[in-house]
């Protein structure tokens, strides 16, 4: 019961502390709104081009391929492709190299020779796909015409109909937009921020002179320690839940369907943060712990993906990012939310719990050794 | 029966002995004054009695039980009123008292009853739902006391409970101390205000350099001072009084001026009043009154320690 009283006191005093309330709730929500809106373009999964420039030469002017090509170029124009016929003497490849065109196609009755730009790779790929589609349809039309020569005119006329490009995506509906990403990143960041208030967990009692009353009361250091850790973890987790709920229900952020796993992972992160904060307050004298923790928290947040996504990062940056607990937790959460991979929770959860136990044991040993709090 | 027994207790911090082989007993029903200048070892002793610090050597017993062997028993029977306010600004007066009383094992309706009782006792019954930030300094001091008494301790340690408050609140607190004593609490009271100690304490110990240098009733302590007398001379203006010249008069032990009153301590056997008056006339001091004071605790303290309590 004494542990519960101390935990209750911790929760109430924190909730009524306006600065803590603003810092743990308003700050992540505002940051989520700012970053989520400002960086929305960085998360888009569509590409747009002004115009795809294709140069071509028709080697066999009299064959059916010319008629079929003419129909196809009408369709290309309506798809935003500017197809330019080059003279037989012109060097199409050089024009592509110079960046005048995204691709050059030499069309003959025996096939299409395609040269794509190494600079405009996406545009070149799209044109290649369109030409491959054209070649397939032409082969099909010729095969049909060989069986029914009367149908050839109508088959050639059909070249301009239908679409040659269809967008398909394997994960279009399962990738985070900017608000989804920052809802997750800010929630994990604010969960880790619990370590900053935790550095003051025992020091604040000294500053308020209540340490004397607590030490003089008939309760063990263990009860006091447990009560304060539980109280701090609970209230910080409540703040995290509030941030998650706001992002989900007000901003419409995606949190997947495994809420239990997501919240459990966030809870262990808060526990880890509180343990780190209390540990630092014992390792460093006076306000040294707070300063170190504040610095470390900012570094972990930065390298752990709180302010920008790390998906495009490679090499040494990834290794540096792996040092941040936020990186492990964001990765695990992303897998739970977007890949329904609930099992991804366990390694991170166990790591959080093991590190928390380690830090808390060290703190308990320090506390037992000290005369006062 | 002794509520507190301190036997040959020493507390060292490195090479420095803050408390040096101290022995002391406080009997049931006493208001025990604990006097000492800053750094004399008073707070260290109080911190050891309240289990905040462990004694390097010696034994401390509360109600006959050693606090090292029975810490919970000792703690349950002590109430601490720290010198600095020890309350939570984010909790209401009621929540503050209830929280601290809860740490002593009180639960349910008993906890509620004792909390309300303690707040009524210090005159904050109607402020139970208010937060301390809306309180005056005196009200906060009273709340500080309420937090220490709700669990009805046998021994209450009050460390400077009237520092920095208005006379009305000070009187209220002194009355509360007497009332608590009448209700059966034994009280250890420390203060820089000699008149408070003289007014309410039944027995007094003077501590200096970590040792008890005198102990007894105020009458017994005053009897120690037979070789000095105190002369108080009221002046209209402190300007040009010439305190240094007064100090050089034969027999003067100490001289100071405090709020228009020259306070001189002199050897009892030397009659130097004429010389003092002549010196003041020479320095053109406008004398209002001259009186010889009976020995008081301040003069006792000065005689024994060679310094004022507030030095």
- Helicity of chain A, as a percent range: 55-70%
Stretches of chain A where pLDDT is under 50 for at least 5 consecutive residues are none
Rounded Rg of chain B: 22 Å
| CA distance, first residue to last residue of chain B | 36 Å
Give the terminus-to-terminus CA distance of chain A.
20 Å
Strand order in the sheet with the most strands of chain A? 2-1-3-4
Q: What is the count of distinct domains of chain B?
A: 2
Number of separate strands of chain B: 14
* Fold-level CATH name of the largest domain in chain B: Rossmann fold
Largest sheet data of chain A: 4 strands, mixed
> Taking all residues together, what is the mean pLDDT of chain B?
91
What is the average of the pLDDT values of chain A? 86
Shape by Cα distribution of chain A = rod-shaped
How many DSSP H or I helices of chain B?
Answer: 11
**In one word, what is the shape of chain B?**
globular
Key structural traits:
heterodimer; A: 373 residues; alpha/beta; Rossmann fold; 2 domains; four-stranded mixed beta sheet; 6% strand; B: 311 residues; Alpha-Beta Plaits; six-stranded mixed beta sheet; four-stranded antiparallel beta sheet; 14 strands; 34% helix; globular; membrane (chain A); ABC transporter permease (chain A); ABC2_TM_bact-type (chain A)
């Amino acid at each position: 019961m004494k542990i519960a009283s101390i935990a209750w006191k911790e929760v109430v005093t924190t909730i009524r502390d306006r600065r803590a309330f603003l810092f743990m709730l308003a700050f992540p929500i505002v940051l989520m709104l700012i970053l989520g809106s400002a960086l929305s373009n960085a998360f888009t999964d569509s590409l747009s081009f002004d115009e795809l420039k294709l140069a071509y030469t028709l080697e066999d002017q009299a064959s059916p391929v010319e008629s079929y090509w003419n129909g196809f170029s009408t369709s290309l124009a309506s798809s935003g492709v500017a197809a330019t016929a080059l003279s037989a003497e012109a060097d199409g490849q050089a024009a592509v190299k110079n960046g005048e065109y995204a691709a050059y196609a030499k069309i003959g009755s025996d096939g299409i020779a395609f040269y794509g730009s190494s600079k405009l790779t996406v545009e070149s790929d799209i044109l290649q796909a369109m030409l491959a589609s054209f070649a397939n349809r032409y082969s099909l039309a010729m095969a049909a015409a060989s069986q029914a020569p009367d149908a050839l005119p109508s088959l050639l006329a059909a070249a301009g109909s239908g679409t040659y490009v269809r967008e398909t995506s394997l994960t279009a509906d399962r990738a985070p937009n900017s608000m989804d990403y920052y809802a997750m990143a800010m929630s994990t960041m604010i969960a880790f921020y619990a370590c900053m208030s935790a550095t003051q967990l025992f020091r604040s009692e000294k500053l308020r002179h209540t340490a004397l009353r607590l030490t003089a009361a008939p309760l063990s250091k263990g009860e006091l320690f447990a009560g304060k850790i539980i109280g701090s973890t609970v209230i910080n987790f409540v703040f995290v839940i509030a941030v998650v709920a706001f992002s989900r229900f007000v901003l419409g952020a995606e949190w997947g369907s495994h809420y239990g796993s997501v919240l459990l992972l966030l809870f262990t992160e808060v526990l880890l943060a509180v343990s780190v904060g209390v540990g630092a307050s014992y390792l460093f004298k006076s306000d040294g712990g707070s300063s170190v923790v504040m610095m470390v928290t900012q570094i972990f947040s930065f390298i752990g993906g709180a302010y920008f996504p790390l998906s495009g990062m490679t090499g040494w940056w990834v290794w540096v990012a792996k040092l941040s607990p936020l990186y492990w937790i964001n990765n695990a959460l992303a897998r739970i939310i977007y890949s329904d991979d609930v099992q991804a929770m366990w390694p991170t959860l166990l790591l959080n719990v093991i590190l928390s136990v380690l830090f808390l044991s060290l703190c308990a040993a320090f506390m037992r050794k000290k005369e006062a709090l | 029966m002794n509520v507190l027994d301190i036997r040959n207790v020493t507390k060292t911090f490195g090479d420095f002995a803050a408390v040096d082989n101290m022995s002391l007993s406080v009997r049931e029903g006493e208001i025990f004054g604990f006097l000492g200048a800053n750094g004399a070892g008073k707070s260290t002793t109080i911190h050891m009695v309240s289990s905040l610090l462990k004694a390097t050597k010696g034994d401390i017993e509360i109600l006959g039980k050693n606090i090292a062997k029975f810490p919970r028993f000792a703690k349950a029977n002590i109430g601490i009123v720290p010198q600095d306010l020890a309350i939570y600004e984010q909790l209401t007066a009621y929540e503050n008292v209830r929280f601290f009383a809860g740490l002593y094992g009180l639960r349910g309706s008993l906890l509620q009853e004792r909390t309300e009782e303690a707040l009524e006792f210090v005159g904050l019954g109607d402020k139970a739902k208010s937060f301390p930030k809306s309180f005056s300094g005196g009200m906060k001091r009273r709340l500080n006391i309420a937090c220490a008494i709700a669990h009805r301790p046998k021994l209450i340690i009050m460390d400077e409970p009237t520092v920095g408050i208005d006379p009305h609140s000070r009187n209220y607190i002194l009355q509360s101390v007497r009332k608590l004593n009448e209700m059966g609490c034994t009280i250890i009271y420390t203060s820089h205000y000699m008149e408070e100690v003289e007014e309410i304490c039944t027995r007094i110990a003077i501590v200096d350099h970590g040792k008890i240098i005198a102990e007894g009733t105020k009458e017994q302590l005053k009897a120690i001072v037979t070789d000095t007398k105190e002369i108080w001379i009221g002046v209209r203006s402190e300007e040009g009084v010439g305190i240094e010249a007064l100090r050089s008069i034969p027999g003067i032990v100490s001289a100071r001026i405090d709020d228009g009153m020259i306070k001189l301590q002199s050897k009892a056997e030397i009659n130097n009043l004429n010389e003092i008056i002549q010196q003041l006339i020479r320095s053109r001091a406008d004398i209002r009154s001259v009186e010889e004071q009976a020995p008081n605790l301040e003069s006792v303290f000065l005689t024994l320690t060679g310094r004022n309590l507030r030095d």
